[in-house]
Amino acid sequence: MDITNRTVFIAGATSGIGRELARRFAAAGSAVIVGGRRTDLLDQLAAEGFATVPIDVTDQDSIDRSRDTILHSHPSLDTIVTMSGVMIPEDLRDPAHFSAAEKTIDTNLLGTIRVIDAFTPHLIGRGTGTIITVTSGIGFLPFPVMPTYAVSKAGVHAYSEALRAQLDGTGIEVSELVPPAVATTPEHAQRNPRALKLAEFATEVMDLLQTDPTPHEILVKGVLMHRWAERDGTYDELVAQRSQALAMLPSRQ
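and the corresponding structure tokens:
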């Protein structure tokens, strides 16, 4: 993937990994449109020189408006990154968790599908382009504290595989970015000392994107233990280790 002359829309790039990738694409020479819900953060990114557009991936009308705005101002759009997502702890012993489960699926899985659906006809019409979905190491090695998050990311993985197969021959490539834990703020780094530093993660991602051919899965070194846990025979042990975090749930204290 040539990252030096792309026109990239990143849905969910007002903070964290999305914002860092937006800056990396822009630094490489690509035009970047940042989408997100928080207008204050969009204003900050606009001050950096980014094109911005408000978008709520749980609202079809919002997605349609964003698409129309982007394609009017950037008809050469050729890259979509579906970054939007939420991570919500859930206590499955408490039926009240269901609202968190609904929000997680609506944002992470259905939101991804909505965004892809909105832009796929444009990319097919161009006969070229790239869709980058964003899953998680948790989609391959569950973190029991966030069960529906794991479900949503596993779902996006399966959807990415099907999308790639169905778009075969259209000129559109589909890549799946699979982050491990990434420290996007100093607070994150303090809570999880094992998390990758954001800058190091982004550098590795941009290097992998430029591999020829573009990998179907963008796997930084730090996520390989998650991605291949079943193959390597470490799955049960690692899930047991991660289950220790269930002690943080109120019902376990």
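(Above: one complete record from the training split.) The mean pLDDT is 96.
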